[in-house]
Write a structure and sequence with these properties.
seven-stranded antiparallel sheet; eight-stranded antiparallel sheet
Length: 257
């Protein structure tokens, strides 16, 4: 009897360690303080060589690091865009690749400067490009500076959709923003024949605002490889003459699991 009990104990302990090992080996992509280095960032996307939307062509665009002021840790990143009405610029960061990831979270501090009023919107995206399924999950979110509403992206129909959450990113002030989103494993057609993208919540300066919206994902363009990561975009609104818009970002992190 003692031998049987000992065997059972060893068996259950083995199961426990196997479960712990599986949990530890679960696929996960996680990066933090990506604003401290240029590593992992793709070249800026602007017209005419790359299309981030809009119709204007920039007169100046830049991305730089190690700004001591304004900053949270002494090493903030600056995004700068100058141009006429409806000029856009997109900065994209690839954190890794994980076609099985279903939960996505990005957190960052953002500091729009006094020129922020010239921006039509400040965009913050999370993405999951799945080459194994041919699906593009673009969890696009933006603070619309005109409507003062957080908007999320319908990838299939290429539309920005209003949420019920107001948006305010004051100029010359740090704001902490976190977006949480997910998809459902095995979903292939629950939203207009495509997998659904679920926008769960946005947290601003510690206040959690439920979004609870879902919109269809899109088709991954031919030749694109798998990848997960996030993006920052500045969209200049309707202005009388060319303007310069800049924002600083600090303590930026992203997790896909």
């Amino acid at each position: 009897m003692k031998i049987v009990r000992k065997v059972l104990v060893v068996f259950y302990v083995g199961l426990l360690f196997s479960a712990m090992s599986l949990a530890q080996n679960a696929p996960e992509v996680s990066v933090s303080d990506i604003d401290d280095s240029m590593s992992g960032w793709k070249p800026v996307c602007v017209l005419p060589s790359c299309n981030p939307g809009g119709i204007g062509r920039p007169t100046k665009v830049s991305q730089s690091i190690d700004h001591s002021s304004p900053s949270k840790d002494g090493r903030a990143m600056e995004f700068l865009l100058a141009g006429p009405s409806y000029t856009n610029a997109l900065w994209s960061y690839k954190a890794g690749a994980d076609d099985s990831a279903t939960s996505f979270s990005m957190t960052f501090w953002v500091y729009p400067t006094a020129s922020a009023s010239s921006a039509g919107s400040f965009e913050f995206d999370q993405y999951d490009f799945s080459s194994s399924t041919g699906i593009e999950f673009m969890f696009g979110t933006q603070c619309n500076q005109v409507s003062k509403i957080w908007q999320v992206f319908d990838q299939l129909h290429v539309h920005w959709m209003n949420t019920g959450v107001g948006c305010s990113l004051p100029a010359n002030q740090w704001s902490e923003v976190r977006w949480d989103a997910h998809r459902v494993s095995g979903d292939t057609n629950r939203c207009d024949g495509m997998p659904c993208m679920y926008y769960d919540s946005v947290t601003v300066n510690g206040h959690v605002y439920p979004v609870n919206a879902k919109y269809p994902a899109g088709h991954l363009p031919h030749g694109w490889s798998s990848g997960v990561g996030f993006q920052f975009q500045i969209d200049i609104g309707k202005v009388g003459s060319p303007v310069t818009v800049e924002e600083f970002v600090d303590w930026a992190s992203f997790t896909a699991i």
